[in-house]
Structure formats: structure tokens, C-alpha cells
Amino acid sequence: MNYIDDITDNKASPKVLVAGGAGFIGSHLCDRLVKEGYKVLCMDNLYTGRMENIHHLLENSNFSFVNHDVTMPMFYDNVSVIFNLACPASPVHYQKDAIYTTKTAVLGTLNLLEVAKTNHCQILQASTSEVYGDPLVHPQTEGYYGNVNPVGIRSCYDEGKRCAESLCLDYHRQYGVNVKVIRIFNTYGPRMAKNDGRVVSNFITQALSGKDITIYGDGTQTRSFQYIDDLIEAMMRVVKADNSFTGPVNIGNPNEITVGELAKLIVSLTNSNSHIVSMPLPQNDPRCRRPDISLATSLLSGWKPQVNLEEGVRRTIEYFRKECL
Q1: Tally of CB atoms within 10 A around 210
Q2: Is residue 74 in some structural domain?
Q3: Active site residue: 47, 157, 171, 227, which one?
Q4: Which of 38, 47, 109, 207 is deepest in the core (most CB within 10 A)?
């Protein structure tokens, strides 16, 4: 039986610890866990997370929040499952303080692995498609080692996450810690921060405000966008999967689109008069990104993304209309 299955069966329910739980992805995960009756301890230092994302949960008896930085030592007992989402995930934020980003990815993961070791519990490590760098293999499979610049401006995040994966598997091999590593590809949806520099939120906020839509490069670089609900469903299935599986496993949407096509779609869906303009391509920005999700589909009882790009973008546009403009 998986640890997460024990929670609703125990009157003195163990806690599910969500590190980075006030962030974009983390807050949606907290929603899902609380909805299913789990007791959730949301830990976040609000470096990029926002209390607005979890405000609606604060009165729920199954939800609690602690302001803590994962780079600092911690002790929690009676923990059943740990989700590690604690790391700045967009270039604007992770390049703001590159050393802190590396510390969060490496020391934060190390500290949470110690909590998992002490509690004899499972930990799900939220890694990233950035471990593949600017890939020379397309689409990317879990067996591809990547093409990463170890000394570039993105290295704090790319290499930090690669090191975190290494730590997880070493804790599994040396101490028997139950680890599962997922590699999250581009994900979007409500609660994205409007100033996080990600392409979907950038384009939507620019279109809604009538500003020029800025494309970096010529717009022919490709991405594959996954709606937040599909990611959360996959994460829930991963922690319930057989404990012999450690990963890594790609979680994303394999439908590929150019950045230029995405910009045109958002202009159309927002009925915007914005013009599309080009800016220089940032250093080491990937030219293509598309997951091979064969392993995830096989492992997770046929899981595959359900929300198509147009529908997901419509939902995200409505969020930004109501909340951020």
C-alpha cells in the first residue's frame, strides 16, 4: 500500500507536506489534496509563492501553512508524503539571485530528503524539462542525458535541478528512501504570476493590455504546453504508482507549437490589437522542447493530457482578466 493511501484511513492522519505550496503549481496541488480529504502542510517562504494563491484554504481544518525556507534545516514528524516544488522556476526569478536558486534546488532537496528519511515516507521531486537543456534529441526521452551549459546564466536552475535528481537517487540507493522524480514540461494556467516572464503569461498580459507581444528570436522555436489540471492529475497518480518506480518520468503535453503560433492564438482569443515584435534570443534558450510521454502513459494507468491548448488558454485568459488586470 502507498503511504498516500493510508491518510484517509487513519483518524490521526499523517500530513502531506507540500514544499513550495503557495506557488502556481503547489497551490493547485494543495487544492486537490484538500479536496480529497488529506491533511496538508503547505510550506513556503513566499519568495515567488503568494498567499493569494492559498487564501481560500486557510480556514480549512485540513490545511495549515508554515513560512519556512527549505534551504534552512527543518524537522517535521508524522509526515506521510512530501512533494518538493520549492524552487524559483522562471528565468526572471531564478536568475534574480542565481546562488540562492542553486541553494534552493540543492540544499532544499537535501533537507527534504532528510525529512523523508526520518519519516520513512515517500518524496516526489518536481524536476524539470530544463535538465535536457537545448536538446539535440527530439522529442526528449528520459534516457537522454541532455545538452546543458554548466556555466551559463540558466545553469543555476538547470544544473541545480540535475543535482537534485542525483541526490534523490543517491538517497534511494544508500538509505532506501522512497523517491519519485518527475520532469515537468512547460505548464500554464490560472495563478501564474503575470510578471514571471513565462511565455503564456507574458503574451496574455501583453495582449490584454494592448502592448506589443514580444517574441524572443524569430518565433520558430517550439514548445509543448501542458494545462495545470493535467499535471496535477499526473502527480497524484505518480505518488500512487508502484514504489519500485523511482523515475525520472516526463510529465507534459507532446503537442508541439511554435512560439509565433502561440502568440497569434492568444491575440485571436483575446481580440487584441497588439502587434508581435521580435527581441534577441536569450543565451541558451532551447530551440525545441517536446516530451516523449510513453513512460508516463504506461506507468500511470493510461494518463495523458486532457485539456487542449485553445481551451486551456481560454481559461487562463479569463483568470488574468479577473485577477490581474
Answers
A1: 11
A2: yes
A3: 157
A4: 109
pTM: 0.92
Evaluate whether 160 touches 171 at the Cβ level (below 8 Å): no
Contact indicator for 246, 184 with CB cutoff of 8 Å:
no
Calculate mean pLDDT across residues 223-250: 96
Whole-number Å distance between alpha carbons of 317 and 159: 33
Is the four-CA dihedral 271, 273, 276, 279 of positive or negative sign?
negative
Which CATH number goes with the domain that contains 106? Answer: 3.40.50.720
Spatial distance between the Cα atoms of 267 and 196, rounded to a whole number of angstroms: 19
What type of residue is 244? Answer: S
Residue count of the chain, please give it.
Answer: 325
Q: Report the candidate in 237, 253, 236, 234 with the shortest Cα–Cα distance to residue 310.
A: 253
User: Alpha carbon of 155 to those of 184, 190, 194: distances in Å?
Assistant: 17, 28, 24
Give the model confidence (pLDDT) of 11-41 as tens digits. 456 799 999 999 999 999 999 999 999 999 9
* Annotation marks residue 157 as catalytic: yes
CA distance 5 to 228: 23
Span between the terminal Cα atoms of the chain, in Å: 46
